[in-house]
Design goal:
seven-stranded parallel beta sheet; alpha/beta; globular
């Protein structure tokens, strides 16, 4: 058990955060860098990734389309060692099953589920080899959602995809119990560009009313902050969490407890 006076350090660890240029991904990149890790900021928005990387110690931007096998292969070729993978990239969708067109469903499955499979599979050899350089094994932290734990109206496709991430997390944890730690965070509604984009697209006419509803469904009465999720990801990636695998860490202001 680590006994650092400064806990949850990640000095010498090499990390990759997908969708790392904004929202929870951006906050996670900053937190992991603050913990001493080398951070690869993978994002399809390479300009934003480069801007963020320039602000952080020991960080590099990486153009990364998580849905594209060629882009993933190029990323693997560029990253020769990896200790921690944060699968954060994802998109949302609003609609019941009746309002969800096959194309919408396929797009969410491709971005939110298939990409996690592709990225994890591609980087698995590097993650399994992490223990050769450190006492600890490699770690994966998947960004799931409370949407994968409970049903939410008008979120048919999104709930489906996040439920799949929950299942993938648990399966990987039992498949590699001694050579890899795999956990997931399940945030409630967090104040991010992701949420702002959702409000602008689907509730432009009643944005503030909907924002109030989003706050109210979480018993603490507010939205979460990206930094609160990032802190949990740092913990799950650290040596202090060496006995933690297959765990779903819910960060939702009491939503799923109510």
């Amino acid at each position: 058990m680590p006994t650092h006076s400064d806990p949850f350090r990640l000095d010498g660890r090499i990390t990759l955060v997908t969708g790392g240029a904004s929202g929870i991904g951006e906050a996670t990149a900053k937190e992991l860098a603050r913990a001493g890790a080398q951070v690869w900021i993978g994002d399809i928005n390479i300009a934003a990734a480069q801007t963020l990387a320039a602000l952080l110690p020991n960080a590099e931007a990486l153009y990364f389309d998580v849905t594209n096998p060629d882009s993933i292969a190029k990323a693997v070729a560029q990253i020769s060692q990896l200790d921690i993978l944060v699968n954060n990239a994802g998109i949302g969708h609003v609609g019941s099953i009746e309002a969800t067109e096959p194309g919408d469903f396929d797009r969410l499955m491709n971005v939110n589920v298939r990409s996690v499979y592709l990225v994890t599979r591609a980087f698995l050899p590097l993650l399994l080899a992490a223990h050769e350089r450190h006492a600890a094994v490699g770690a994966i932290v998947n960004v799931a959602s409370v949407s994968g734990l409970v049903g939410i109206k008008q979120r048919f496709a999104y709930c489906t995809t996040k439920g799949a991430i929950v299942a993938m997390t648990r399966q990987l944890a039992v498949e590699y119990p001694k050579t890899l730690r795999v956990n997931a965070v399940c945030p409630g509604t967090v104040q991010t560009p992701f949420v702002e984009g959702y409000l602008e697209k689907f509730h432009k006419h009643n944005k503030e009313e909907m924002r109030a509803e989003l706050r109210a469904r979480q018993p603490v009465g507010r939205l979460g902050q990206p930094e609160e999720v990032a802190s949990a990801i740092r913990y799950l990636a650290s040596d202090e969490a060496a006995f933690v695998t297959g765990t779903l860490l819910t960060i939702d202001g009491g939503w799923t407890a109510a």
